[in-house]
Amino acid sequence: MMPRNAIATLVKLLMGFLCITVFHVNHGESSYPGAGTHGSTYYQDPIRRMALVKASLHTLRTVAVSSPQGSSSSRVHHATEYGADPTGISDSTEALQQAISDAFISRIEGAHLMEGIADLGGTQLHLDGGTYKISRPLRLPDTTGAGNFMIYGGSLLASDDFPTDRHLIELWSESNSFKYEDITLKDLMINSNFRGGGIAVINSLRTTIDNCYISSFTSSGILIHGGHETFVRNSFIGQHSNVGGDHREKHFSGIGIDINGNDNAVTDVIIFSAAVGIMVRGQANILTGVHCYNKATGWGGIGIHIRSPGLTQTRILNSYFDFTGIVAEDPVQLHISGSFFLGNAFVLIKSLKGVISGLTIVDNMFAGDYTGTQIVQFDQSNGQYFTAIDQVVVDRNVVRGMILKSTVAKGSKWSNGTKWTVDFSEVLLFPDLIQNVQYTLQASSSFPNHILRNVSHNRVTVETDVPVSATLRVLVDQSMLGYV
Which helix (H) or strand (E) holds 127? Predict the structure, then answer.
């Protein structure tokens, strides 16, 4: 099929040619005022023929302008060409859904992604920079699987009657099998109008959500459930638009990003209002460059809530917790590193069955207001105290205005006598758990016999057989248990 632009150009050239031709015919006819019936018929027949051609070309031009781009060889489907209203006044649900359905017809024969998922060849739905009101979720067809498709370049607004238990865009198949792969949602502004959520990615493979602004949700800005390898990056997510200190903050609700699955990545994302910034229920997820100021801890907010007890396998790197912190339940293999905790934000380890294993909280910065907030705290309010403790490293964190807690500590004490005690109870994370001790007794003149006498209650005591003036230097470590 000839491209639309080429058709329009051809129409213009032919129309111009017809106008010139008709002008010359009329001029010829008026030059012969005395011509009889035969001469009149001679000149009128070509004029009628040209008029018919002109009418047919006008029809061709009308069809070329009104047909959706998706009907041509192009794989870019424009929302406005399907009748969608870019002003956001009229409901555009049907038009956008039809555009998506047409996009899913553009399959490359014989090409597949995962088995059963057809390759759409990079087909796109372009929103043309408009704002479109929708009254029900935009869903991808699920009769047969497909991928390599993108929706981008515009805004979606939930109508006042949008269902409150749904999301504006849903990658959701009724089947339990994978139906979607390599779907990209990019450069979108999504306003849920406090009528549900923003984007739902359910049982989908290798989905990308890039440069999106999602607001006014009540459930979740982004829901990731099942599937594999969803990437969320370079996006802003918040229930209410603000830059901190909002008077509505204590009433913020919902979850910015709700991850219930494995192998997902959130990178360079800001959560500026929600009860919980990111909820993680699953393993092998990585969160990098996240800035959470969604709801302060003092109002009951949580920046990142790790709810994968017993097998966590999550990494939180180079992130910023702004008056809101991290909560992890019975963490097993959780790594928190290179992050900044501001405004008394801290890490809370919550006990369900008293298990901590493979937890590393290292190389972070903490800043507070000197009111005595510890950088790492325990919640054992259910009566299940932490007893299964293994490979826990909290070390090399820098603290200003908060209380440092660590699993590794150094101390020294000078005395002239037979007993030296160094008290680590203020700094060590676990209350009575010194498993490894290294010490040096530096005496001024004599060589006394000495022995490590006691390590209970996080206090290290060394005694000598004779009085001596000496300095005791001690290194203690709570991190490694159960190893030779």
Answer: none
